[in-house]
Each structure stands twice: as C-alpha cells, then as structure tokens.
Amino acid sequence: MKFNESWLREWVDPDIAREALLEQLTMAGLEVDGVEPVAGDFAGVVVARVTDCSQHPDADKLRVCAVDDGDGVHQVICGAPNVRAGLTVAFARIGSVLPDNFKIKKAKLRGVESHGMLCSAAELGIGDDHDGIMELADELTPGSDLRKALQLDDVIVDLDLTPNRGDCLGLRGLAREVAVLNRAQLTEPSVTEIEAVNDATFPVQLAAPEGCPKYLGRVISNVDISRPSPQWLTERLRRAGLRPIDSIVDVTNFVMLELGQPMHAFDLQQISEGIVVRMAAAGESLTLLDGREVMLDERTLLITDADGPVAIAGVMGGERSGVQPETRDVFLECAFFPPLAVAGTARRYGLQTDASQRYERGVDFELQELAMQRATGLLLEIVGGEPGPVTTAIVPEAMPQRPEVSLRQSRLNELLGVAIDAADVDAAFDQLGFELVARDDSAEGVTWTIRGPSHRFDIAREADLVEEICRIYGYNNIPSRRPLTRLMLAEVPINRSPLSALKQQLVDLGYQEAITYSFVDPKLQDLLAPGARMLELANPMSTEQSVMRVNMLPGLVAALGANVSRQQDRVRLFEHGLCFQTEEALVQEARVGMLQWGRRAPESWNQANESVDFFDIKGDVERLLNWTGVSHVKFLPAADPVLHPGQSAEVHVDGRVVGRLGRLHPEIEAVVDVANDIYIAEISAEVLLQHVKPTHGSISRYPSVRRDLSLLLAAETPAAELERIVREAVGEVLTDFTLFDLYQGKGIDSTEKSVGLGLTFQHPSSTLTEEEIGHYVDSALGALTAAVGARLR
Fold this sequence. Notes:
The chain is an alpha+beta fold. The protein contains 21 helices and 38 strands. The strands form ten sheets. The chain has a seven-stranded mixed sheet with strand order 26-29-30-34-33-32-31, sandwiched between helices. Strands 3, 4, 5, 6, 7 and 10 form a six-stranded antiparallel sheet that branches. Strands 12-15-18-19-20 form a five-stranded mixed sheet, with no helix packed on it.
C-alpha cells in the first residue's frame, strides 16, 4: 500500500521525526518497503495566473502569454495545447532550478523573448503528464511558493503488509496503528449522514448470502460528471499510486484509500430491474471495464441485473454498466464479501485489482455504512446530485462473528521473557479497540477475555493477543537472552541413515542439490508421466504450477533448462522430495531424483571432452546402493515410455522395483530442447535411507589365482545373469568376477556376442591346487553352458 506522510499526519501527528515514524511502523509489523519524494528537486517555481494568451506571430504551435506571478506580469512563450487566459499555472521564474539541475534563463523563441517557463507535471517530477502544463486550483494565490502551496515537501511511503493486516490497507487503519503506538490522538474526518431528498431506490437481492451477506446501494440522480475532480483529490490519488479517471470513480477510489472499503458506481440507466448477487452459471461471460471478455466459472460470485452479469464481485466491474461521460444517474454500491468468497477469483482471470487485494485480506464488516455516507457527501460536493435513501440488504446469520479470546498474563510473560504490567495490557487493549469481556485476577496473574474489533479478522487465539501486546510494548524493549535448556541425547537408529548423510553422498558424487516446487506445469508433467492422474490445486499460484508432481522429473528438467540457458556445459543435480499419486487414494512417497547432462568431467587439458552415458548414471546409483549396504540388487531392462528403449533399466532390490534410470526418450528430449542426451534416475528414498548393519570376515592368507574365459553366447544375455550363474556354481571361493571384454562384429554371428570373463579364486584356509582350480573353472563353464548356451570361443 502507498500513502503520503502529510495525509497520515492529518489523521494522527505524533511528535516524532519522519525517520523514527517509518522505523516504528516497520518494527510494528508494517514493513516500510520504500520511500520516495512526491516531487522532483526544484526551487524558484511559484503559482501564477495567465492573464492573456495570443498567437505567436511566427509559430503556429506557440502562444505568447502574459503571466502574473504576484510581483508583476511577465511575457512567456508556451507551446502547451491547454494554455489559455485565466489558467492558474506553475511558473518557473528566471533563475529557477528544475530537476536535473536545469536552470531557467531568459530566452528568445522565434524572435520573441520569453521570461520564464510554464511547467508540466513531468517537468517538475510531480507525475508523468507531459502533454500540457499543470492546471492548478483557482483559489491558489499568485506568487506563493509552489512547494508550499501543494505541500510538495512530502514523501510517498510504500508499505509491504502481511496478509493478516488487511485493516491497514486504508489510511484510517494505518492512522489507528500509529495512534496506538504513540498514544496519540486520532482525528477522523467529520462524516455526516446524508439525508435522502427523493424516494429513488433500486432493489437488491442476496441470492448467495455466504458469499455476500451485506450489500448497500444508493441512487444519486442528476449528477454532473463533467465537473473535474478537485486538485486535492487527484493529488491524493496520485500519491497513492492511482491514476485519476473521472470525478465519480475518483471519489470511490479515494474512499477505498481513506477507509479501506472498496466501492463501485453503476450507470443507473444501464442496469435494469434490480441487483442480484449470485454465483455464476455455466456459460456466462462478462466484458470487463478494461475491455477484456472473460468466460465465468461456477465458483465466481457475481453482481447481476435482469440482463446478466454487471461485475465480478470484489474484483472488477463490467463495461456495460460502467460510468460514462453522459451518465446522469448513478447507483452507488458498497458491500461486504468474506475473504474466502473472493479468494483466488482475481488470479483465475489474470487480474489483480485494489478491490480484490482488500477483500482477499479482509474488510471491516461494519464499515459499509460509514463508507456510503462518506462517498455520498464527496459526490454531492463535487458532482452535485440528489441522493435517495440507502438500500441495505443483509443476512445477519451469514455475517462474521467476533470470537472471544483469552490471554493469560503468565503465558504472556513466559513467551516474551519479560514481565509486563497488567495496567499496560489494559491500556493496549483499550487503544487497540478490543472489547474487554472479562478480567479475572488470580494468584497466577490476570486473565483477560476480549472480543476483537470488526476490522481485525486475525484475532482468533491467545498467540494473536500476545503478538498484539508485543507490538505495542515494542520489540526493541524485549531483552535478548540466551536460552537455557537440557538436551537429551537423540536416539540414532542403527538401521537407517539420516537424510543429511544421503545428501552428502550425492554431493560427494559430484551432484548439486536442487530445491523445486512440488506443484508443476501439467503439460510438462504429462510429458514426463504420460497418462498419470494428477492432483490439481484448488487455488494455484499460476497455470504453470497448478498440479502436484507425480515424479521428480519436472523440477529437475526445468532446472536443467535454466542452467543450460546460462551457458553451463556440465550439470549434475539431485532432489529429495514427495511425489503424489492419486490412482485410488492419495499416496505420498519420498523419492530421490538424479540428473546428469553434458561433460563427463570438468573441462581440463588432461581430460577428454566426453559426454556422460548410461553407465555414468548407473554407476552412481550402484554406489548409492552399495553405501546403504542392501543386497540382491538387479538392473533389468525397462519398458518405460519416458526413457530410451535401449538405454533404460528398472532397479530391483530384494525382488521388488524401487526405481528406474536411463536416458530420456529422444522424443521428450526434443520437446525439452536441450542439446545432448539427458540421463536421469529416480529411486525410492526409503531404500536409499536404509542402513544395513555392516559385517566383516577374515582375510585369507593364501594366494589368489585368476582364470579368464572367452565365451560365445546369445546377444541378449545380460552380464548380471552371467555373474549370478557363475557365483551360484562356484560359491564363496570366487572372490571377484570381471567382465573385461565385449565384442560383436566380423567373424561372429549377428545373434551372438563374445565376452571375456575374469574369474578370481581364493580359498580362506588353503592354497588352491591346479586340479581344484580346473574343477571350479569347469563348474562355471558347465553352468553357463546349461543355463544360457555359452561355449568357449
């Protein structure tokens, strides 16, 4: 929220400097995000009046003006299209200094002297309007300093409010906070009840009271919208970051800024029969004030008339019923919408409005009557008109209830670490406008039971009251103390590794941890998990983050794209997180995802420029599984639509599938649009966090011996199957199995391959004889021949 300091000090003016005031707001939880001056750095500019304006003799677009600055009349040449006699203007005298150190000197334009300059708002750093000179209010006195006349020695403050402080999205709420923090007097503008002068009404019906339990409307006839908004009003809007539009819209925006209550005005001639607040029906559409047409969903609360929707409740009005230059009768509306009734509506339609921001955070449900009277008074003052009676539609049972909340003094002092006097708590509750329901004194201290004011939606439990007292007491007044506690030794399970140890193993393997959102783009997720049922978010931040991930790939692939776009040539990423399956019931499973891409090794003079392949990712998975100590690990060919059919595998541990690895399918790589192959692995985190109790045996003192076999066998036979067969046939005497050669090509049948196996034998208690070694070799060869048809080459 933006506001200017001078406006705030009209409501409450504590005896503290600007810097102290801004620091105070931040320490009270209303963070000051930025401060900027309301005008540029200039001097010597005064209020003046154009007394005469005639055509320049030698230039069609220039005018020769007589300008009275209170000390005399000066001749000034001006090319602004809006310059005219009788206009009150900002006049830079000779010697004046404008922003960027631009000095005003006497000049001659097309042969005619000019003694000064008539300034636009942009030239003074007051706004962006540079199409013409500033038009000032006629009541300003010529010769008065412009900075003082317009209160330009002021600053615009930008507050970054937490979601629970919607009450401070209006100057009234903000001033109330400053008054409490400084125990200062709050001075509110006088708002009188405007009596009706006719019987003109427009009926209102609440067909969805849970979304709109309260709606006020008022007909104001015979308004003159051609009357411009006064300068004080447009300047207030500008300093709050809003652009003046027309006098009626300016008034509703001003009331929103002042009180925090959004309002809207309809052209009464463009709406018929009555207002109905209801939910949207399927197939309805609405053309908004910005000219964009939206298709409405059934979750949207609407303001409608007999001809259909005229506004999205709490967000934006429709073009059909908007105020136009020819509008003569308006229907002024002011409603209360609970936060949940409009939450997410603006984002679903790609909108973000000042009204939706306030309604989503919570608007005071007792504020509407005051806002209606305030807006009516301003409209009558600016555009005239004849007000009818206020029409109020309300469903009391659907209105919010103010809960009773208790605060124990003992708990307050315990949490803050300092004893706060009960009288100070009483004073804080009184200043905050909290209703004291009960106050009980006991040996343990005082217990207060309060009821929060209507503008504080966030007061629901004891901790909320502790926070309020803490803010008023002052965070800086709470001493810092070192906590003292007794820590018990944590129980460390012997059969499980901590997650930090698993992450360290991955870092040791050269990976970097990625932390991505659990909600992902449905298009990317469907690409990386075809046909999977995805859990949709009810209120997503964007369409690119609207479903929960079913595997770890979307985040890692997106992170790879971000790295490649930043000229990285070697990427190793891992992530631990939950995946969400929704086949029958929602199942959450923790997994570890790994991704390799690019160079096998960092660029170096002594390293070949080779890219990673299937065996790099497989080797890393094997190292992780070896670290856990699990046994009976197998890698079997996978039929996975996401992975390359010839470079993929399922990971089996103890006979069950626990993960997968391999290269992404080429069609998916083409969509991802990253050069070179992408290799991924996805393993159950539960398996990787297992920690099998390590065992050890004795080391044989007897020599080992190696025998090599060159075999011919079927090409599709996996190496893991060969190792299994040999180990089962030979037993514990086989201490090492090595596949040292693989050949397919000339001299070998196309259905076969040649492999070289290295078998290392070692007995734990004796030296092996040639006869024993030959027996073991024959056993291995016989088993291979019987199982897979292997034969010596």
